[in-house]
Amino acid sequence: MPKNSKVVKRELDDEVIESVKDLLSNEDSADDAFKKSELIVDVQEEKDTDVEEGSEVEDERPAWNSKLQYILAQVGFSVGLGNVWRFPYLCQKNGGGAYLLPYLILLLVIGIPLFFLELSVGQRIRRGSIGVWNYISPKLGGIGFASCVVCFFVALYYNVIIGWSLFYFSQSFQQPLPWDQCPLVKNASHTFVEPECEKSSATTYYWYREALNISSSISESGGLNWKMTVCLLAAWVVVCLAMIKGIQSSGKIMYFSSLFPYVVLICFLIRALLLNGSIDGIRHMFTPELEIMLEPKVWREAAAQVFFALGLGFGGVIAFSSYNKRDNNCHFDAVLVSFINFFTSILATLVVFAVLGFKANVINEKCIAENLEMIIKLVKTGNISQDIIPHHINFSAVAAEDYHLVYDIIQKVKEEEFPALHLNSCQIEDELNKAVQGTGLAFIAFTEAMTHFPASPFWSVMFFLMLVNLGLGSMFGTIEGIITPIVDTFKVRKEILTGLWKT
User: Fold this and answer.
1) CB atoms < 10 A from the CB of 293, how many?
2) In sequence order, which residues have a C-beta less than 8 Å from that of residue 325 and are 6 or more positions away?
3) What DSSP line would sit under 240-268, residue for residue?
């Protein structure tokens, strides 16, 4: 072989050896890179599965005994006192039946999506409001603490309302009811009706002077109201006993506290529809005023009611859903609970205005009787001629239509002198237009209406027991919105935290 060919062969062999070394070194570096990337993936997977598997191993989170119990808990939290005494007021104030359309639109566009969002994050992350926001971003954890503070203040005033309801419930086992008539005052010479009660009404006087025992001005303390103090203490004891073991104890009470209000509302609706004037109240309620629907104020108040009714932003919805399994169908839950809430508001509105229609009819009959006596006196004194009164009208039994006919005739004949006669038109719509809400509806208007019911103590017991259960259902969700995130975050025993909270 020539010398030059040997040299060329040696050079080729050296190049092959160097190429093989390069390939081997590249394989080693690729293998190291693969191992490093595999380690990173494993770490990321561990982080992702921490919420799914680690949380169950760490704290063995309790779960609902059944899907029905969970649905009743969410319904009990969302359906509260606002459905009974705020929604009917807003409906009447904002155009009657026309208000239902903005409310339904905002419920579909805003309410259900946000409600579903809270259900899904609670169910997926399985933490209370603090843990959910910390998981999204540690910088947002303060939002969870803020929701706990809001729940704290809401719980304080909500339990006061439960205390008021317990007081009225305890006073309802009497015949007649203690707010049926004004109290009598006796002195050395004679007996007379309490002047302050005579100027207002028996139910108003009982609410402010007997139940609340308010002072004349804010500068006067008035002392301790022992009756209400005992009722408030009883309310806290009930809540504490129900919440002491979390959803294991409160979940069982939901079967009664969430379903009983519907039994009472249906009974009230059936009873009210059999009373005179109930149809007038319902007709007045759902007569739409379409021009009001275009006002921005109506849509704003409808949106506020949607948020308030579903309990959005409080943390209770997240807390309840965090005890669910992750494969639970929360889409169905969001739609179901939202529409149960909506139809409950409609049912409560029917009941409220059927009862208020009956109350307005009773007041209207008294108004007609009083004004007829004035007309008879004016006829006898000659201020009104007997000739202008239609011959078919008998003053001993005058229907509302006949009175309005006489009133219109007198108003036309005595046009200049009419204001001095001090006659009232006695229109039932005027009484129904006196919109009431909140405590004014529950403890004044509704209690006054029930005094005219046959067997009024029975209906009073049912009504205030319903208010207690509505308050407890919302109270359970509110307290759970405080206890669950604190227990999740600080690992405190739920029994100890519940006891400390109530004390």
Assistant:
1) 19
2) 63, 123
3) HHHHTTTHHHHHHHHHHHTTHHHHHHHHH
DSSP tag of 427: -
**Region of 217 on the Ramachandran plot (φ > 0 left; ψ -120 to 50 alpha; else beta):** beta
Q: Residue 475 in contact with residue 163, Cβ under 8 Å?
A: no
Please tell me whether 361 is known to bind a ligand. Answer: no
* Cα dihedral 410/413/415/421 (nearest 10): -40
Rounded (10°) CA dihedral 372, 377, 378, 381? 160
* 131 labeled part of a ligand binding site: no
CA angle 115, 121, 126 (to 5 degrees): 125
Q: What is the 3-state secondary structure (H, E, C) of 362-416?
A: HHHHHHHHHHHHHHHHHHHHCCCCHHHCCCCCCCCCCCHHHHHHHHHHHHHHCCC
What is the Cα–Cα distance from 208 to 444, expressed in whole angstroms? Answer: 10
Domains of the chain: which residue ranges?
67-366+432-498
Q: Determine contact, residues 277/356, Cβ cutoff 8 Å.
A: no
Among candidate residues 371, 493, 399, 455, the one with its CA nearest the CA of residue 177: 455
Tokens 């979390």, residue? 246
Cβ atoms of 128 and 489 closer than 8 Å: yes
> 424 labelled as ligand-binding?
no
Q: What is the pTM assigned to this prediction?
A: 0.82
16 among the known binding-site residues? Answer: no
Q: Residues 395, 385: contact at Cβ < 8 Å?
A: no
**Is 67-366+432-498 a domain of CATH 1.10.4160?**
yes
Full pLDDT tens readout for the chain, 503 residues: 444 454 445 554 555 455 545 544 554 544 554 444 444 444 444 444 444 444 443 457 888 989 999 999 999 999 998 898 889 888 888 877 888 889 999 999 999 999 999 999 999 999 999 999 999 999 999 999 999 999 999 999 899 999 999 999 999 999 889 999 998 888 777 888 888 888 888 999 999 999 998 887 888 877 889 999 999 999 999 998 888 877 877 878 889 989 999 999 999 999 989 988 889 888 888 788 888 888 899 999 999 999 999 999 999 999 999 999 889 999 999 999 999 999 999 999 999 889 888 888 888 888 888 888 888 888 888 888 878 888 777 777 778 888 888 888 888 887 778 888 888 888 888 887 776 666 788 888 889 888 888 899 999 999 999 999 999 999 999 999 999 999 888 887 766 666 665 55
Any known ligand binding at 472?
no
Distance CA 289, CA 102 (A): 13
What dihedral angle (degrees, nearest 10) is formed by the CA atoms of 134, 135, 136, 139?
30
Q: Is 79 annotated as a binding residue?
A: yes
